[in-house]
Amino acid sequence: MSWATRILKVGRIVQASPAAPARTVPSPTGTRASLQIRHVDAGSCNGCELELSGAFSSVYDAEQFGARLVASPRHADALVVTGVVTHNMRGPLIDTLAATPEPKLVIAMGDCACDGGMFRNGYGVAGAVGDFVPVDVELRGCPPTPDQIVETLRKVTGR
Amino acid sequence: MKRDPVASGTAVRSGTGVASGAPAVSGGVTAALGALGVVVGLRAVFGAPLHASIGWLVPFAGLRIDLDPLGGAFMALTGAVAAAVGVYAIGYARREHWARFPLVMLPVFVLTLLVVPAAGSVTTFLFGWEAMALTSLALVLTEHHRDEVRSAGLFYAVLTQIGFVAILVALVSLSSASGSGDFAGIRAAAGDLGPALRNGVFLLTVVGFGSKAGLLPLHAWLPRAHPEAPSPVSALMSAAMVNLGIYGIVRIDVQALGGGPRWWGTTLMVVGAASAVFGVLQASVSADLKRLLAYSTTENMGLIAMAIGASMLLGASGLASVAAIALTAALLHLVAHAAFKALGFLAAGSVLAGTGLRDLDRLGGLARRMPYTTVLFGIAALGATGLPLGAGFVGEWLLLQSLIHTPQGDNTLLSLVIPLSIGALALTTGLGIVAMVKAFGIGFLARPRSEGAEKAREASPTMLVGMALAALGCVVVAVAPAALGPALTRVASTLPSVGGDQGPKLGAILRLPGAAGSVSPAILAAAFAVAISLVLLLARWGVGARPAAVVRPLWAGGGPALTPRMQYTATSFAEPLQRVFDDVLRPDTDVAVTHVAESRYLIEKITFRTAQADAVEEHLYWPVVRAVAAVARGVRKAHTGSIHLYLLFGTIGLLVVIVVGR
Amino acid sequence: MALSIALAALQVLLVLVGAPLVIGAMRQVRARLEGRRGGGVGQPWRDLRKLFRKQQITPEGTTVVFRAAPFVLLGSALLIAAIIPVVSLGSPLDSSGDFVAVVGLLFLGTVALALAALDTGTAFGGMGSSRQMTVVALVEPTILLVLFTLSLRVHSANLAEIAGGTLANPAQAFSLGRVLAFASLVIVIIAETGRLPVDNPATHLELTMIHEAMTLEYAGPRLGLVEWASGMRLTVLLVLLANLFFPWGVAPGGPGLVQVLIAVAAIVAKVAVLAMALSVGETFLAKLRLFRVPELLAGSFLLGILAVTASSFLPAAGR
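Predict the joint structure of the above. Result:
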């Protein structure tokens, strides 16, 4: 039972969340507090991935606002795209968006995804996310902190 | 595994010049014989027993027909299967370019199948039995230019003749001890026979008839011969001929001898349970569609033998009303199995004719190319799973009920046997689902795994009609088993030793006499339809806010498009199960890694080979075969070619005879 | 008759509405134990509402099997909810479908989904289907053994009789056979509904999936139906667990309004407790390696055999 006592001792570790931000982006389905996310790594340095997993960890708990990561774009309402789009990931990114059912939106996460960031003119880089798929939400930062990620997701889920 | 339809077609065609109408005549005669069998059989079931004696037809004893409700029921069942197969065979024989020989033999085979249950005397029975064995052997060997067929034929011939010897000894000693050559006489005298003789006859009949029914351990011919025979013949063998093995056990042990001590029933239950579990395990890892169906036959015959064993055990324990439930379970499952297995083999034949394949690993995508066959095979597969709304459900339900309603506690044998047989039955149904999901899902759904499957052609109209007839049987058994009620009651009433006169009434709701327990397949089906329409309503929720539906390519995980080669195959589908049951199945797998010459860290190629042999065959048959071969080699040493030596052998032999005979 | 049909409708409605809440409660308990706040009990309902407003995508090359499977899956779950004693023992379908039929209907749904996964022709679909059927091959026998243990005393497999028998004779409820049967049924429910440690319902890794791998191609309303159905399957199994082993509170055949209200409250409480217990257990477990799962299931099968043998050899203990 050491786990049980440890759970009791630690208690609630999730951060206190500020009041819900204004809902700036209309939720894709018009449904509040339900957003299934498929994450696409289009050529990231994995900094954003670390922060993203932080956002869904016990401390930031993005799930309390109705966001959840899913395994298939068929189940998703939104794609979170991290990193610059490399030549090899251009096709898969477009395919993934095509496989996602309407209504859907694309969240470009991190500076690289928004405008190419520090890798902009790399030889393997095809461009920023916006060059290939329509981006609905931009989330700046290199990498954005979990707080920023959660805040952006809350703008979409409206919770 | 793979068969080249063109090559086999031309090989058969070039040999003979069969008239274009010949398949229609052969199939038509077969179907007519079947229909006649149904009519005569049902007349016998419902109170017009047929007695006939044709003295001149068989030397010495004459042909004696004596059709009672029991024989009539088996005749009607055989006839029904034959009718469907006959219609089907018209199209099949035409498409596969059958030669004259199988065209002639098919109706003859059906005739012998109808003679066996009608036989009233031991000689007629043995005559019909052997004729049935020989005609079916001839039909199995239709494509004798292939090695597998010849090997299957040899297996079949040897095992069926071993069985025949056992039956011959059993019946002849029974008839000489009782002083009567017909079954009625034997039944009358059965009470006076000594226990040693009765026990001996029981054991011999279990061996002999068990070999025909495909029960362990003499089942090995079945998964060889049924797949290699032409599909209409497979259907006849698997849905009609194996039934006669059960018929023999019921006729001799249950009816003529009137049951026996409790170990009879226990023995039959153990043999049945072993056959059921082993058969279904082999079926669930088999990658050959027809082999899978053949092993499923062993499974279902095992279940039926288990039910008959249970009814004998319960009857011998004085629990007549529960024994009657088990008996009804056996009879009903026999009908259900005949329906779904005939349909299964006919559909497999359509696949074989349409694609040239029966290897599930190379099939797939037939649902689009052969829609009718797919639906029909689906009905058969649902029946074989034993799930509700399928044909196999009611029989398995009754068997389970008979076991549940067995009073226990005071009887150690029952307390031990019943739970273990429940376990075997439970394991069988679980694995049966896997086998059939694999057969249907891998074989018919998804995308074609080979060129043959890609170019599949739908079956011809007569083939579809034949299959539809069998499917009708499946649906009737699945939804309205009550239709069979009167016939089953009549049959059961001839078997008083297992409480046949107090069986359950098969009404719209199946109720068990003197016990709480009921199920109604018809009401369940109706309620299921209501539930589905409710779900259709639920699915309308939010339809107004929903964007228009679209068709998109498969989600390939972002990679390039999926190819059919990336799909799971039957072998890969069954691999986890094969791992779980490793100790029983003993698969033969071999991985050979070839490294690049320069470095052991680089691999040039990996060869993976897996084969699933029959463990019983491997560990029981081959030692015997090897021992016989070794003895034969020893005997050959005596054959020197020297006349003097042979004279010496002769003299020694004569002396031995004189000494022994003195 | 009208009353019993109304009660069956109430049961269906209760399970239909309650199933997403059961899932939500389980996720919520898990979130709290992990120190998170969690999405709330109503989260699965919000997800469902959203899924039914999403676009329906049919993958190329699939057949009617893919399209029909969610309906068969949910339809079978609805039918089970109408048959089993959720609120009252007097279901109009009780005489038409006993425990064997209920188990059969449950697996009819499983088979439909497994076939749909094979129908897509994707590698993950085939993988999920193969694994699910391996689990089924070991789960179905165990459920039948549990059923047999429970039916042995009352000599009936009809669910109302089993539950009624325990009500009439409470001393039986804690016999050795029933305790063993309870344990093996719990393992089986965990395996069949794809919970930890057999399958991880929250995983994103395709290679570790069983149930999720079969639904990867479903989108929008069809996915909604599948999710709803899997919630309902878990719920009806928990109801069976609750009302077959602890039937107290279930309304008898022709109940009055008060009895029905008590029964509803009782079943909600029982399922909530069981779901929370399951969720707490899950939090402490890691997923088993796939090839360890059969060992667990074989263990539950053996427990089932023991249960049957115990109740057939020690019948006097409970009588």
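Residues 2-33 of chain C form the longest helix (32 residues).
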